[in-house]
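Cross-check.
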Amino acid sequence: MEEREYQLAIASRALDGHTMVVLPTGLGKTAIAVLVAASRLLNHQGKVLVLAPTKPLVEQHLRFFRQFLLLSSKEKENAFLMFTGETPIAERQVLWRAGQVIFATPQVIKNDLIAGRYGLEEVTLLVVDECHRAVGNYAYSFIAQRYLTSAKNPLLLAMTASPGGERARVEEVCEALGIQAVETRVESDPDVRPYIYERDIQYISVDLPRSLSVGLEMLQKLVEARLRTLARMNFSVPKRQNLTMRALNGIQMQIQERIRNRDKSAYNAASVHAEIMKLRHAITLIESQGSESLKRYLEKLAQEGFAQDGSRASKRLAQDPQFQQLLQASREWREEHHPKLGITLSLIKAQLAAQPESRSIIFASFRDTVQNLAQALRAEGIPAERFIGQATKDTDKGFSQKQQLEILDRFRKGDLKVLIATSVGEEGLDVPSTDLVIFFEAVPSEIRSIQRKGRTGRSRRGRIIVLVTRGTSDEAYRYVSQSRERAMLSEIKSMGDRVLPAPGVGTAQTRISTFIPDGPAITVDDRETSSRVAEVLSELGARITLRRLEQGDYAIGDRIIVERKTAQDFLSTLIERDLFGQLTMLAAAAPRPVIIIEGSDLFSTRDIHPNAIRGTLAAISVDMGIPVLFTKDGGETANMLYLLAKRETEHPSTTKLHPYKSYRSLRDQQEYMVASLPGIGLKNARVLLSHFGSIAGLVTANEEELTAVPGIGEKTARAVREILHRPY
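Predicted model, tokenized:
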């Protein structure tokens, strides 16, 4: 590893306390982490835990550490290990005990800590890469707090190239990670200037063709009509030209205030606001992405509008004559009308003609655009591939972590000449031979802009080209981003000289035994770990098991299953999905079902009459026998669950599982026994008893005979057979 004085200086200072390192991309933040790790392992032994937000970045750190961190041959056998969600749980527990330097995404570590699978007591260095993410409920914050209060000898090293230009955000990150010192460098600092490679930045301005300008005017008129509607309803609205996201949020706040005051017109205003949001997205597509992306979006809006379960906003928009006119015009477009696509193809061709072995990365914000670019490049015979996230959006299935790593490997080897990436490719990826980066659109975020630019100029001179559509949000975003980058540079320069406020975590070490769970047992659905609830339960000392629950979100003992819903989700399920069907299955899954509604805005979130909501709550509580509990937020929900679990453990109920009045007849008892089977209920119980004649006849029936009964499907038949014939 090349010796650089600034890296040694920063590493030396980072050994003195929990440190944030802010360093321009390409200057070797990972090398500093290796130096700090080597010192900690030599002098304090223990383990090193390296966290990064994506698997490709985790794998990149693993390769770098394995190459440059020298350990004895005995240590090296199980030294470098990578944890992902695909690594089996039991295997992770064994590997954790054996491993010395462990690389992982934060969600995996967070889940394991919540479930009590291992602790961080022996970790002598925690490395947090892309630490600017440690805001809100991101997993970095939870892990850092747990580490700083449970490790025997903690040291935290946080790293980023782009902490953000707002001081409050930077201080939030420092608070979340317990940062005590900040080490910064900018490209003009004397000790880093020899290692800076030039990046030539070029802005190419393009004009919208007539066909798209006409479409843009139609969309703008649609927005203006809806702003006038809101103005007539006495809302304060800006002119269409000044309709920023901040202004839209301001309108939303006005609407919510009037909903809280029981103003019925505000519900209609909320629907109009939703229309404006949809139209604003369409304007973004036509201005910066192109005709094909817009065309697909308009078709999607039309399908939503004419669907039986479509929202009022979608229906009203789809029926607007001007929208229908634009939709019809878009259906006649046979090729991409926006000039950005052709310009991008020309730039890539020219780059490969001049440097056949070079690599290029194109960044685009939307998957439709990424797909269009990939198809166009391949049609020209250029080896190109998409690089997108794991989430499935509409019909577009995301890439698995394995696919992402395979694509990056092909790109590094040169099998692929062009990578077309969404935001997932912006952070940290190191491909030394990337000579050209193209922004298909300007981005307003200074963090994203700097991350994108950092993909080139890492080992030699690089070129960055930003495509900007004249007279559109592209131009505004260009200048906003430049202004914020300057502000961030100024903030970085001042960070090293500023005395940080005392960190909120890590100042007083907690007993290690505090995090050995000794509280009541709670099973948490593995889809709930992104919420604050699971974190607080872990902090309270609950013994948590993570697994996929068929019904409910939390299981307590063998009697209680709890469904947690935010107020918004509760109302959405009531209107758009089958709330009562879901709760019926919940009730069938446990003797004591409970629903928790989280949030204080149940009566103001949606355009639903308060009495309708009260009627629903009454039906759930009285007719279905499911208690409804209300909490303010995730923390209060966690405390409620903890108390339920503690009560269930310390005061087990002696009440019989079927606490209803004595039956008047044998017939009633037969009906009740069959009704308790999964998915049956009283109505189907009577049908089944009439069909088979007795409970004995029902018990001996096979699956085919059960499904022959009206109202009994294959799934219900399988569940009934399973519960009747499975050994106890």
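Residues 5-180 form a domain with the Rossmann fold fold (CATH 3.40.50.300). Residues 502-514, 654-663 have pLDDT under 50 and may be disordered. Passed to J.P. for a second look.
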